[in-house]
Amino acid sequence: MVFMKNKQTITPMSKQKAHPIMRLLRLTRPFIGMLIIAMFCALMVNLAQLLKPYILKVVIDDFLVNKKDQVGWYSISVLALSYFLVVMLGGLFSILQANIINRLSQGIMKDMRTRVFKVIQYLPLWYLDSTSSGRLITRATNDVEALSEMYTDVILNLFKDIVLLIGIVYAMFALDARLALVSFIVVPVMFFIVFLLKKKIKANFQKMKHIIGQINGFMAENISGMKTIQIFRGEREKYNQFLKLNDDYFHTTIYQVRLNGILRPAADVFQTVSVALLIAYAMGKISDGTLEIGVLYAFTTYIKQFFNPISDLAENYTTIQSALVSAERIFDLVDQEPILETLDDGLPIERLAGEIEFRNVWFAYKGEEWILKNVSFKVKPGQTCAFVGETGAGKTTIISLISGFYQVNKGEILLDGININDYKLEDLRRHVAVVLQDVFLFSGTVKENIVLNDDITDTVLEDAIYTSCAKDFIDALPNELEEPVMERGNTFSAGQKQLLSFARALAHEPTVLVLDEATANIDTHTEKLIQQAVENVSKERTTLVIAHRLSTIQNSDQIIVLKYGEIKEVGNHQKLVEQDGYYANLIKSAHANTLFE
User: Fold this and answer.
1) Which of 118, 379, 410, 499 gets the most CB atoms within 10 Å of its CB?
2) What pLDDT, on a 0 to 100 scale, did the predictor assign at position 139?
3) Which residues are 562's β-sheet partners?
4) Domain of 524: which CATH number?
């Protein structure tokens, strides 16, 4: 299954992807009807802008300069009414366009946020290991918001501005081709300046996005570790580190503002120069009677209209560059979606006996820095197997492999004689439950933290609570199962969190139960409760235990002793003690009930 593979074997990002602009445009497909209406409104607004100078040109040339002999109220009324209707309709279509594009933009952003969150929920651990939480949060918030700004302020305006420019160019050449050429002399120079600034603007936006990701990650980490920071008086050092990041972002933003500030004034300068050239050329034509004053008026108005969208395009160019950088970062994330498509692949699991076998397993998180080296063992159904070893021996890695978070580099892992890669991942995790040392509780209620989904019946829930020895603790809460849980379960003790985690695991009725140092940070009373719970369920389930305490280890059917990623010894407690080897030496040097400090 692709989802379970390590990053060396997953290659969805290596495929050729379409340009971000094309991909952004494709996101409008579900809203194509609204987009077409918005574009029609934009065309109407452009038509109104093109007609207004022409109507005034007719008024100037036909009624003011040439002074037609028969100037009736009907002609004047028609022109006045035409101008009024053009202005009113242009305004109405502009309002309608703004409302439609805002709804379209928010609809796209809603879909994008949902899509990003869905992908994050199913990301493999190797991706999360190599990507900070701050970067992921930035992509789901700041980057999505940057796209919203582009859709709201740029996409339709870009269409409107381009159509308006084409219309203005056509109108100007239709009125006087030579005058139009004079007016556009400065345009290539302006586009050359934009081209020179292009790379600097994009590079600086990439730097800004990177720094804001660092700031978000730093703040999230700081809040999570606030207790440790305060215990060791690290507030000042963390404050200084934040000042450095914030200062970097400040200077990068100031530089971006300076780059942006060049474009709009440059467009205004070129507009002024263009009008000056136009007037200088037109005055001679007017004096010799080859050019009408109304045409000059129309041209000066058209030039202003021409440079307004040019200025908008120059100003929006920075928004586009910011959005493109954000789009690349978001698409880098959502390009992991092919992994989601593999979640339903594989063999369904209806029932498992619970036999687990490692055959010559090699594994490394990076390159060939092997964490596990040629590991082979078998755990029979219903057995309790304890993994013992110093920090870095590979105990937790074995658990991660069994749970399907990573895939082995060499060898294979079998569950009931079938390679776990051949099973449907969701079914595999339904039958393999893990109780971690560091319990994570979500905001909500006690019940919501145990069930986590809706397919657990009240009967199963009650059995899990009773079997995990959490019933007395939960019944003592003011609201029992409906007791509110604050963020990360900060109002509960470590032992209470562990009991809830144990109940959570049992509520899903797993065939294989994994205890990852689940008794390491709890008091003796809670440990006794969990030991009783383990005894209650171990006869029906295969139980894998990573533990430091002798009381947890010595009752296991099988103990696997690990050292530097290799198996040193295998057997039960009595057999290993009698061998007087590595395990026996650990027992002799153990401090009280703790095998490893």
Assistant:
1) 499
2) 78
3) 567
4) 3.40.50.300
Distance between CA atoms of 418 and 439, rounded to whole angstroms?
31
Average pLDDT over residues 334-356: 74
Distance, C-alpha 418 to centroid of its chain: 35
Q: What is the pLDDT of residue 79?
A: 76
The full DSSP string for 576-596 is HHHHTSHHHHHHHT-BTTBS-
Q: How many CA atoms lie within 13 A of 470 on its CB side?
A: 28
Residue 50 sits in the same domain as residue 193: yes
Give me the chain's average pLDDT, please: 79
291 plus 402 within the same structural domain: no
Q: What 3-state DSSP class applies to 28? A: coil
Cα-flanking dihedrals φ and ψ of residue 503, to 5°?
-65, -40
What pLDDT score does 518 carry?
64
Burial (CB count within 10 angstroms: exposed 0-12, middle 13-18, buried 19+), residue 460: middle
Phi, then psi, of 151 in degrees rounded to 5: -65, -40
Q: Say what the pLDDT of residue 483 is.
A: 85
Residue that is last in its domain, among 340, 373, 399: 340
CA–CA separation, 235 and 231 (whole Å): 9
Rounded (10°) angle between helices 73-121 and 32-58: 150
* pLDDT (0 to 100) of residue 314: 66
Q: Pick from 340, 371, 388: which residue ends a domain?
A: 340
User: Is there a single domain that holds both residue 100 and residue 230?
Assistant: yes
Number of Cβ within a 10 Å radius of residue 395: 22
Q: Which helix (H) or strand (E) holds 240?
A: helix 235-287
| pLDDT tens profile 279-312 | 888 887 777 777 777 777 788 888 887 877 777 7
**For the stretch 194-215, what's the b/e string if a residue is b when 16 or more beta carbons lie within 10 angstroms of its beta carbon?**
beebeeebbebbbbbbbbbbbb
**Is the same domain home to 574 and 441?**
yes
pTM: 0.64
Domain match, 328 and 366 both: no
116 and 247 both lie in a single domain: yes
Tokens of 239: 């404050």
- Which of the pair, 261 or 69, is modelled with greater confidence? 261
User: Are 383 and 310 within one domain?
Assistant: no
Are 526 and 499 spatial neighbours (Cβ–Cβ below 8 Å)?
Answer: yes
The Cα angle at residue 394 between residues 393 and 399, in degrees rounded to 5 = 145
Run of H or E including 562:
strand 558-563
* Top-confidence residue, 198 or 519: 198
pLDDT at 219 over 90: no
d(CA 410, CA 373): 9
- Report yes or no: 516 and 546 within 8 Å, Cβ to Cβ: yes
CA-based R_g, the chain, Å: 35
Query: Domain range holding 460?
Result: 356-588
